[in-house]
Amino acid sequence: MIRPNYYIQPRRNLAINLSKTKSEILAEFHSSTRSNVKKAKRKDVTAEIKKEMSPNDWDEFFKMAGETIARNAGKNIYPGRAYFETMLKTVPYIDDAKNGELSLGFFCGRHEGRLAAMNLVLFFGRTATYLFGGSYTAELSSKVTTYLHWRGMEEAKERGYIYYDLGGIDEKLWPSLTVFKRRFKGEEFEYLGNIDVVLNSLGYRVYNIIRKIRKSG
């Protein structure tokens, strides 16, 4: 059996079952997560799904991504702007598609009217999947990031989706993010994911050296 050198994506994801009532879902959260949802409401945190993303919205998103990267020891998990532009050309916004069809939702969180965080969620089949998010460091005390996921779950449930997938978890690569996601107390599952199977060891080492140089640049 050929085994991969390493996995491109985390092998485990964490998803929330939305078939229960909202009260039951909220009750299963870790106590600190429940508290943060309530705290966000008291701190005048709101959330909306944008009908479309303007160039200015994307500028804000990438500023948030930059601050998020800085908070995570410089680890960059974000693709470039061209990736998102291509996605928008091929995947419709959620209100332009039928429930269950492949579509995108852009959740924007505001604190006292200020844009504070953004999440990109992919809807397909029975599942709403969190793909990317970013937030301003100065707004984290408002608990907007927790609230934005809760609103994503509410919206997905109202539209008839059964799961809200919080995405990958990995204790070594993303320790703090993994702790944050696990406090929503979802179901963890493992899948094969995307892997590199190396057939040319020398060529692959050269490829990885170039890849690291480009990332550091």
How are the SSEs placed, and which strands pair?
Elements: E1 12-17, H1 22-28, H2 31-42, E2 45-50, H3 55-71, H4 81-90, E3 103-111, E4 114-124, E5 127-135, H5 144-158, E6 163-169, H6 175-182, E7 187-190, H7 201-216
Parallel strand pairs: 5-6
Antiparallel strand pairs: 1-6, 1-7, 2-3, 3-4, 4-5
Brief digest:
The chain is an alpha+beta fold and 217 residues long.
Sheet of most strands: 7 strands, mixed
Shape: globular
Fold-level CATH name? Aminopeptidase
> Could you give the count of β-strands?
7
Q: Whole-Å distance between the termini?
A: 37 Å
Report the top-level CATH class: Alpha Beta
Question: How would you describe what is shown here?
Answer:
This protein is α+β, with helices and mostly antiparallel strands and 217 residues long. It contains seven helices and seven strands, in the order βααβααβββαβαβα. The protein has a seven-stranded mixed β-sheet with strand order 2-3-4-5-6-1-7. α5 links the parallel β5 and β6. α2 packs across α5. The termini are far apart.
What brief labels describe this structure?
globular; 217 residues; Aminopeptidase; acyltransferase; 7-stranded mixed β-sheet; disordered N terminus; Peptidoglycan bridge formation glycyltransferase FemA/FemB family protein; alpha+beta; 7 strands; peptidoglycan synthesis
